Amino acid sequence: MSQARKDLRLLIAPAFGATEKDHFYPWLKKSLLAAPNNPFEQIDVVAAPESEMTDRLGYGQAIWKALGDDYSRTVFLGHGLGALACIYALTRCPQESSPGYMSVGGFFTTHNSDRVLDDWEVAIGTGKMYLWRQRVALLADPDPDMKNRAHELSQWEDTNTRIIEVAGASKFTRREEPSVLDAILDEWGYAPEDEDDE
After folding, report:
1. Could you tell me the pTM of the whole model?
2. What is the pLDDT of residue 25?
3. 8-196 CATH, one of 3.40.50.1820, 3.40.50.2300, 3.30.470.10, 3.40.50.300
4. Tens digits of per-residue pLDDT, 157-168?
5. Sequence spans of domains, the chain
6. Cis peptide bond upstream of 142, omega within 30
7. Which residues, in sequence order, are CB contacts of 122 under 8 Å at separation 6+?
């Protein structure tokens, strides 16, 4: 789908322990800004200390703070744990629509009992996910951390989320992740001529 003009904001909620300098985030920002069909005039990464990321309220507050008054023009991109954090943050966002949400290597439900994630699942509600007009989930194929792939897929399907399975993506932690860039531009990008027609 294409946007009518370049006025969106991309807000990236990073994976556990990551900062704006890690994984594919710097490359994605640079690549989007250089793309002729880039729909974003602003690209930001949520700053959250690792200690806050293990707590849904702490990470949620970091997202709300970063969001400011830009909810209605923001596309949320959650990587790993950040994907859950975005869904949780939505419970406190306005009751109005926003351009969308992308989960990159994130779980819809938590599976790893050896990590401090168990309390997230009880707080994650999907009742407001429809407010994200477009929803995409990039899943690694295979993903050794995904204990029940069929169940995970059904969870995303139940929320009418477009699923893209990426072979060999592991946890999407490489410095360059072309599948993420392609999915974003395919879903939210616009043709340059659209801008000329206005």
Report:
1. 0.88
2. 98
3. 3.40.50.1820
4. 888 999 999 998
5. 8-196
6. yes
7. none
Distances (CA, A) of 60 to 16, 46, 50, 55, 133: 13, 10, 13, 8, 21
The per-residue pLDDT for range 16-50, each reduced to its tens digit, is 899 999 999 999 999 999 999 999 999 999 998 88
Mean per-residue pLDDT of the chain: 84
Confidence grade of residue 193 (pLDDT, cut at 50, 70, 90): low
In 3D space, the residue among 122, 56, 58 whose CA is nearest the CA of residue 83 turns out to be 56
Buried b (16+ CB within 10 A) or exposed e, 107-126: bbebeeeeeebeebeeebee
3-state secondary structure the chain: CCCCCCCEEEEEECCCCCCCCCCCHHHHHHHHHHCCCCCEEEEEECCCCHHHHCCHHHHHHHHHHHHCCCHHHEEEEEECHHHHHHHHHHCCCCCCCEEEEEEECCCCCCCCCCCCCHHHHCCCCCCCHHHEEEEEEEEEECCCCCCCHHHHHHHHHHCCCEEEEEECCCCCCCCCCHHHHHHHHHHHCCCHHHHHCC
CA distance 116 to 81: 11
Residue from 170, 138, 175, 172 nearest 21 by CA: 175
